[in-house]
Write a structure and sequence with these properties.
Length: 337
């Protein structure tokens, strides 16, 4: 951390651009009005923290505290096995919550306000854990499937029945890949774990729609993986099963999205990396795949999450070594408790 909390709070990254770019993208009909309804005029990204290695997985606790992962790739940063940081919006201070983190990536809070963490590979846990925020005690809720370790649990979502969905790709790490597919799994309240998707390429971000009828999966492949760069959607049944895979946005041959957030209207906020010709940023899409707005981030964003309560219209973004926030016109969606 190179600057004081007050300096970080006042740092401005740049104006938000909410419609067509100079390289000639066509603005969809009605996109300008939609963009202005999402991003206030002259809205700015505000730097909150600048002391990470590779930040991921922001999640906002019911009390408004922001937790996020720091993936300290061991090849470049030493044998640290990751951190989870805790940012207090009231004081502006950011402190280490957990170290090592088991190479945590995605983080969510379940319907009982417990922290659920996807732990990846590269000397990480390769499992999904749950922490009681009152006692501090943690337990593994998904450690093996068919007796084999997961590849590298990446991101998570939860439905209003308390079922947890997580993606299991592998982007780096020395460990052997033991699962035959890079899949999407569901953890039921009784503790059972099911593979529900095996055709999502290299699945990364994941979301459940507010109406509980659609499961969205972001696929962003590595060069040596099955190439699929897309926002996918599956019909989500009442029992948590999925069907009817469809491509909502096809980004190929450019890279697809990483992590995602969602507002109460079901619009998706996709973190897209810096790969020419597009600008890195949070790309906002309607549920039917219409691009509505873009929030440029200058460096590649990895994930995003909305606040709660008084910060329900605040979008937190992890990008590179930094944590940002921006105030929007839309409230974020969180499953009803």
């Amino acid at each position: 951390m190179r600057s004081s909390a007050a300096t970080r709070r006042s740092a401005v990254v740049g104006f938000v651009v909410v419609f067509a770019f100079s390289w000639g993208w066509t603005e969809p009909t009605g996109a300008k009005d939609s963009a202005e309804s999402i991003v206030p005029e002259n809205a700015r990204l505000e730097l909150l923290f600048d002391g990470g290695f590779f930040l991921e997985g922001p999640a906002v606790a019911p009390d408004g505290t922001v937790y996020f992962s720091d993936i300290t790739n061991t090849a470049n940063s030493g044998m640290q096995a990751g951190y989870i940081w805790r940012h207090d919006p009231s004081s502006g201070k950011t402190t280490v919550f957990r170290s090592p983190s088991g190479m945590s990536n995605g983080i969510i809070f379940d319907l009982e306000d417990r922290m659920v963490v996807a732990q990846g590979a590269d000397f990480g846990g390769r499992c999904v854990t749950r922490t009681d925020m009152t006692t501090g005690k943690s337990e593994i809720i998904a450690g093996l499937y068919n007796g084999r370790s997961f590849n590298a649990p990446n991101d998570l979502a939860i439905d209003e029945q308390g079922r947890i969905y997580f993606t299991d790709p592998r982007y780096f790490g020395h460990e052997a890949i033991e699962q035959p597919v890079m899949g999407v799994y569901r953890i039921d309240p009784d503790g059972s774990v099911s593979l529900i998707i095996s055709d999502a390429g290299t699945p990364n971000g994941i979301l459940v729609a507010p109406d509980q009828q659609t499961l969205y999966v972001a696929s962003i492949s590595m060069p040596d993986h099955f190439s699929l760069h897309a926002l996918l959607a599956y019909d989500l049944a009442a029992d948590g099963s999925v069907s009817s895979r469809r491509v909502i946005v096809d980004f190929d041959p450019e890279y697809g999205p990483d992590g995602m957030a969602m507002d109460v209207d079901g619009n998706l906020y996709l973190a897209r990396p810096a790969v020419a010709p597009h600008t890195p940023g949070i790309y906002v899409y309607s549920p039917d795949g219409q691009q509505l707005a873009v929030i440029p981030t200058q460096v590649s964003p990895a994930n995003a999450a909305f606040g709660r309560g008084p910060t329900a219209k605040t979008l937190y973004v992890t990008a590179g070594t930094n944590l940002y926030k921006i105030e929007l016109n839309k409230e974020g969606y969180h499953p009803a408790r």
